[in-house]
């Protein structure tokens, strides 16, 4: 079996693991480092692997992937190369869409997942007309600041060097998300757990709950205080839920 391409995965806290590998997929403009705190919190109990998309950080010189489908195809190939151990996916915002499409491809290829955790994203069957990727640079940054008011990460974009490096990937990611075709999609066999922010301006309660139509397995939708990046401000609660659900996997597989 071919090993995963090392450009795609980051293991921030490697160690012996006998349970589930949790593959984490970042939001638009995000990178693998967003999940460093997730890896630290779950170290020793869950093998956390963060995906590094092309076009950012140490992959800055590579072209961005142009669509969610193309990104999912690449990620699915890397996940399949991990081997036969149980795998779950955890995607935030754009990462939730990539996770869903990746899960479809893996199930078709005979690599079923144990769980899909979809955070901060409406169901694939729910669409809105959006054109954030067509905004000016200042408009794009203002949009990110509106979504990221709780964590302050958008402040880094005020630095001209950071802006020049980050905006091309951010814009490309928004283009991929905003051209993603709204579809009822293929129901997954694995369970889906959805995390959503009560005040998220881009995901309503009904849009989050509509993920139920995308699985034949179990479904849960959990709401937390906060906006789009509630997953950072309420990280401990979200990870406690992930840890609890993944702890059930060995029993389910046995």
UniProtKB/TrEMBL annotation:
<comment type="similarity">
    <text>Belongs to the thioesterase family.</text>
</comment>
<dbReference type="InterPro" id="IPR001031">
    <property type="entry name" value="Thioesterase"/>
</dbReference>
<feature type="domain" description="Thioesterase TesA-like">
    <location>
        <begin position="23"/>
        <end position="246"/>
    </location>
</feature>
<dbReference type="InterPro" id="IPR012223">
    <property type="entry name" value="TEII"/>
</dbReference>
<dbReference type="Pfam" id="PF00975">
    <property type="entry name" value="Thioesterase"/>
</dbReference>
<dbReference type="GO" id="GO:0016787">
    <property type="term" value="F:hydrolase activity"/>
</dbReference>
<dbReference type="InterPro" id="IPR029058">
    <property type="entry name" value="AB_hydrolase_fold"/>
</dbReference>
<keyword id="KW-0378">Hydrolase</keyword>
<dbReference type="InterPro" id="IPR020802">
    <property type="entry name" value="TesA-like"/>
</dbReference>
<protein>
    <submittedName>
        <fullName>Oleoyl-ACP hydrolase</fullName>
    </submittedName>
</protein>
<dbReference type="GO" id="GO:0008610">
    <property type="term" value="P:lipid biosynthetic process"/>
</dbReference>
